[in-house]
Amino acid sequence: MEKLQNLTERVLSYNLGSSEIENLGYNRILLQVCGQAGHGKSSFINSVRYAVHGGRFEATASEASAAESYGGKTLIRTSYRLTEVITLVDNRGFGKADSYEKEEIYTQLGNLQPLDEEVIWESCFDKRMKAITTAKLNSKDLLLPIFIYSAQCAIDESTEEIKEFLKNAQKLTGFLPIIILTKRYHGDVTTLEQHFRGLGMEQIFPVENYTSEDHIKTPKKDKIFLSP
Ligand SMILES: Nc1nc2c(ncn2[C@@H]2O[C@H](COP(=O)(O)OP(=O)(O)OP(=O)(O)O)[C@@H](O)[C@H]2O)c(=O)[nH]1
Ligand SMILES: [Mg+2]
After folding, report:
1. Which of 57, 64, 65, 181 gives the lowest tally of CB atoms within 10 Å of its CB?
2. Domain coordinates of the chain in residue numbers?
3. What is the mean pLDDT of the chain?
4. Which pLDDT tens digit goes with each residue over 167-190?
5. Where on the tree of life does the source sit, at the highest rank (predicted)?
6. Exposed, middle or buried by CB within 10 Å (0-12, 13-18, 19+), for 126?
7. How far is the CA of 65 from the centre of ligand 2 (A)?
8. Architecture in CATH for domain 4-226
9. pLDDT tens across 156-173, in order?
10. What's the Cα-to-Cα distance from 138 to each of 25, 26, 117, 143, rounded to whole Å?
């Protein structure tokens, strides 16, 4: 396995200048962190930043308390610059996913929603169209979808919804979503991995996020966050 220091350096020095991505006209990679409310999106972002930059653990991307997990804690679509080239985007989590909400999910994913502003599920069509057309489509961003799913939740009635989301995410960005299974020691990761493989996903990473309660840094854990 690659040494931790090498991995860190590789992430930090990742440069578009020498890659074909820049030739395609991109100047930034947006890691689009998506998923249902309370599954650990913000915690995943905090973990990646902690693994890459070290220092004191800070839950900068705000974690939902267990009680508010399903209410949706992150309301603003916030961006976190990881390196010169890579930015993590904490998208608003979805809950009931009715058709209005679905549109918002995809406008976030397609980067048609402004960054660092509150994501409002607009119910009026005109207002939605206005928001979309005034948000400048930043075509210089390469979008990479990351789907967060908690191992604590069995795949149940939301299966179809997730399947549809993953397919659309691929269509919208051109990339197969990377699956992150959070709370890996709190559920049946093996069954979930099989499930996501069955949906055609190739990169699936079970993780135990660093959280405010548990953030003892270990090389093994760091490596997991640097690998995807
Ligand atoms: N044990 C454990 N707890 C986790 C893990 N990931 C997240 N949590 C906890 O789960 C709760 C929800 O995590 P968040 O990161 O806030 O989830 P989110 O997807 O950003 O939630 P919204 O912003 O509401 O959509 C918090 O209390 C976290 O501390 C994990 O891998 N292991
Ligand atoms: Mg959040």
Report:
1. 65
2. 4-226
3. 80
4. 888 888 889 999 999 999 999 999
5. Eukaryota
6. exposed
7. 10
8. 3-Layer(aba) Sandwich (3.40)
9. 767 888 888 898 888 888
10. 11, 10, 15, 10
